[in-house]
Amino acid sequence: MNKKAFIFDLDGVIVDTAKYHYLAWKKLANSIGVDFTEIQNEQLKGVSRVKSLEKILSWSNKTISEDQFMELMTKKNDDYLSYIAKMDESEILPDVTNILDYLIEKKQPIALGSASKNAREILKKVNLYNKFDVIVDGNDVTEAKPNPEVFLIAANKLNINPENCIVFEDSVAGVQAANIAKMIPIGIGRKEVLHEADDVFTDFTEMSTGYLKELIIK
Ligand code: B16
Ligand code: MG
Predict the structure, then answer these.
(1) Domain total of the chain
(2) pLDDT single digits (tens) 110-130
């Protein structure tokens, strides 16, 4: 049995902040005359703030100055921060705390691997910060998912080989990043969207402790 590690994405896996990113991006896109659909939103999940805005601008063929770009990024984040300001433990997704506690009880190393620069603040707000051995977020990386940097840094800090790392992800970019890192991606969301993952669960309520045990001893 090889020692495993469990890496959790944040937005859309631990907390439902994906809906706040959506609302903030939609408002911003509409304010510059760009249509913004849920399908386009799917392509922004797991993607950094800079890359997300670049994508929105490319869909509309808009070019703006660097100053305007920075202004829009600040606007989006301020809007997003106003949503997350009110967050508390009630916004933790179903069974996430149970799964974390089970892994802690089984002495499994746990990391956060998120593209978000707001990750630490959110974890503190929902009282989960202390459950992680290692936290790697948007402030620690230079490359955005699907680049595997965020997960590789987490594996390195935990001192576990990438092929023994299980990654829980809700985004296509994140599943691709885990695959590129040669890790084991488990999708949290829809099978049609996350078909590159090894397994997909709608949410953690569908994941049995038997399944986790298998992952630990595999
Ligand atoms: P921020 P994750 C990602 O977090 C989100 O999925 C993505 O929608 C967001 O643009 C990105 O974080 C950056 O977030 O603007 O807060 O720095 O899913 O990797 O936990
Ligand atoms: Mg996510």
Answers:
(1) 2
(2) 999 999 999 999 999 999 999
Q: Is the domain of 79 the same as that of 94?
A: no
For the four alpha carbons of 86, 129, 118 and 40, in that order, the dihedral sign comes to: negative
| Residue 79 designated active-site | no
pLDDT range class, residue 218, cuts 50, 70, 90: confident
Between the CA of 16 and the centroid of ligand 1 the distance, in Å, is: 11
Same domain, 60 and 12: no
Ligand found nearest the CA of 43: 1
Are 73 and 103 in a shared domain? no
**pLDDT digit string, tens, across residues 186-216:** 999 999 999 999 999 999 999 999 999 999 9
Whether 49 and 151 map to the same domain: the answer is: no
3-state helix, strand, coil in the chain (%, to 5): 50, 10, 40
Q: Which domain holds residue 38?
A: 18-84
**CATH value at residue 64:** 1.10.150.240
pTM of the full structure: 0.93
Please indicate whether residue 4, judged by its CB atom, sits closer than 6 Å to ligand 1: no
Distance CA 28, CA 151 (A): 29
Instruction: Report how far apart, in Å, the C-alpha atoms of 9 and of each of 63, 113, 125, 132, 150 are.
Output: 32, 5, 16, 12, 10
